[in-house]
Specification:
Blueprint lengths: L6 E2 L3 E8 L10 H18 L2 E7 L3 E8 L4 H19 L12 E5 L1 H13 L1 H4 L14 H5 L11 H4 L6 H13 L18 E2 L2 H11 L12 E2 L7 H9 L6 H15 L4 H8 L3 H17 L1 H15 L1
Parallel strand pairs: 1-7, 5-6
Antiparallel strand pairs: 2-4, 2-5, 3-4
Helix pairs in contact: 1-2, 9-10, 9-13, 10-12, 11-12, 12-13
Amino acid sequence: MSRPLRIQYPDAFYHITSRGNERSAVFLSRRDREKFISYLESAVERYKAVIHVYCLMDNHYHLLLETPAGNLSQIMHHINGAYTTYFNTKRIRSGHLFQGRYKAILIDADEYAKELSRYIHLNPVRAGIVGKPEEYEWSSYRYYTVKRKAPEWIERNFILGYYDKKQVPAMKRYHDFVSVLIDQEYKSPLADIENPVILGSKEFVAEIKERFMGAKKPDRDLPALRSFSTKTSLDQIEKAVDSTILSDEKLARQVKLYFCHRYSGRKLREIGSRFCMGLSGVTQASKRIGLKAEKDKKFCKILKRIEENIIL
């Protein structure tokens, strides 16, 4: 049986799901759920995982997870492995608890993190367990919308930051964002996914394919690809561009955006903040430089020279 493709790199975002073997329940008691959550916490402490969103159902769970160290497999081995050992020991059983391998979809966080967080938090409502997501004890939703102290290992600021810089108004707006779909049928953000392991814009999917799939030969047993264990800093990129393009500040700025978008591994929001522009502005500026390079051979050579300096 071939293993699912795992694309791993620093600061990647994933939507993770794992189901019970033969769809059997994996959480049978309150203690089970508390124990599983303790493994999420230890994954943060030991393996530098960043847990943005979680929801535990009876026979499966959802995570919105970020990997600053590019070590998804290590994180998930810890979470699922430790919990399986606990569950089997407690119930004097052996064998697999989860059905096959966990499913990990690499996501374009700037495009889909908000929608996926809403989708995950509404799981108990769609299942008819509760009428409102804040009534469900075993998800991260209440930490996003109620004035209560959240565990230190849950990262809420990334998603709440899309709504307001201040926490209280951000939580109110996020509550409204989620609540508007409570009594409505809506399409899952995963419904129209074209690539089985990547969810994002066409540009994002193309970039990931180019960076991680283009030069690799398929491996039927383990087609997992890992690269970019270190990332280029924004300062390095700016320095490389400034040393090459000296006379045209406007062009230099656009080229910096292009290389920051392509090589830094930083989120669009962080790049945009650096250059005082919006998320779409970063994408469009990067796209324009790419198109210019396709049409202008001389300019293309300049980019290649800068690229060589960046990846040294």
